[in-house]
C-alpha cells in the first residue's frame, strides 16, 4: 500500500529527488535506505507493532524518516509537537495510549504495550492505525482521527494526483497535521518535498531557486505574501498556488492573483475526508469576483447539500454539506458524542454551509454554528465579511454573534486592516450599513491581527469571548 509505493519509487527512480532543503537533495533510494535503517534501530530498541509512539522531533527530514520507519514496523504514532506545552502533549499521549516517546535520536518507554485506541483484532499492518491526527474544527477539545496506510494511499490517489513528479512547497511544519499529510501525499506520487532551510530567503526567491511547481499554503500566509510582494515581487510563472484550510475571501483571491500569482487554485476539504483538496478544487478560470466558489467535487467524491432535517435541497440552495469518499475516516478516536454529531449514515457532515449549482460548482457560505439569528432573521457571517472586505482598506473580516436577551443574537464583526491603513470603526459601521441594511453588524472592532489557531483558521470563539486585543 503506502510504503509499497515509496519502495517502488526507490527501486525504479533511486536518484529522483524526494526531499530538498537548501543545497541538499535526498533521492528516493537514499531516503528509503535511511528509513529502513531507522526502522532497524527502533526494532533494536524494542519498539514493535503493538506500540503507540509519541513523536517529538522538530527537524522535518528526521521527523519524516521516523514517521515512515514506524510505519515499516507497524507501530502507530502521534505527533507531540515541540511547539506545544507539556500538559497538551501529555493529554494527547493519554488519549491514544502512547507507550513510547521518540525524540531526536532516542526513545523512552512510558507504559506497557496495549492495542492502539481503535484497533480491531487481527488487522493487517496496512489497515491498522498508522497515524493519529487532530481533526477539523476550531471549537472544543481537539478531535482525533486515525489513518491507516491504506487510507493514506487511497486519499493520495483520489485527491493529489497533481503532485505526481512535481516539486511541492508546503509551509506548515511537518509536526502539524497538514504539514505531515501533504508531504506523505507528495511522496506517494513520487514528488519532491521542498523545505525551507532557515536562511531567511524570501519565499518568492525560494520558489525560483528550487523550481517549486506547486505551493500549498493557508489563507493567512497568503496575506503575508501579498504584503511582501511590494518588496519581493510575485512568484515565478511556473509556480501554481493552492490555498485552503480556511475561508479564502474574494478580496484576497483578487489581490493575490493581481500581485503574487495568477495560477491560483482554491481548495476545500477536511482531515476526516482527505484534507485539502480532499473534496474539491477551483481552478483559476473558475474563480469569480462575487462568490466564494471552491470547485466541483473530485472524482470519487460524493457530495450532497441538505436542510436541517437531512433532506437534499434544490441546486443553488444553501444548506449543510455532506460528503463521503473511499479512504475517509468513520469516526473520532475515543469520542462517541462527536462521532454521532458529525458522522451520519456513512456520511461526514462538518457543519459547513454550502450551495451546489446545477453544474456542480460548490460555493462556501460559512459555518452552520456561526449562523447569526437576529429577530428571526438568518444572517450568514459571510454576507457581513464580504461586505466589509470590499472596503479597500480592509484585509480580512470575521463576523460572529453576541447573545441578546431582546434580539436573540446581535451581529458584530472584527476586522484586520491592510498594512499601514488607518480607518475609524464608525466609518466601517456606516460602510456596512449602506450595503447590508438591517443585516449589518451593530459593532465593528479593528484588531492588529485576527486570532487564529495553528492551522490559520480564525478563532471566532476567542473574538466572541472578548479575548482578542484591539489594534
Automatic annotation (TrEMBL):
Residue ranges annotated for the AMP-dependent synthetase/ligase domain, each copy included: 6-332
Pfam families: AMP-binding (PF00501), AMP-binding_C (PF13193)
Matching PROSITE patterns: AMP_BINDING
Residue stretches making up the AMP-binding enzyme C-terminal domain: 383-457
Entry superkingdom: Bacteria
GO molecular function: ligase activity, forming carbon-sulfur bonds
UniProt xrefs under InterPro entries: AMP-bd_C, AMP-bd_C_sf, AMP-binding_CS, AMP-dep_synth/lig_dom, ANL_N_sf, ATP-dep_AMP-bd_enzyme
PANTHER family per the UniProt record, alphabetical: LONG-CHAIN-FATTY-ACID--COA LIGASE, SURFACTIN SYNTHASE SUBUNIT 1
The name this protein goes by in its record: Long-chain acyl-CoA synthetase
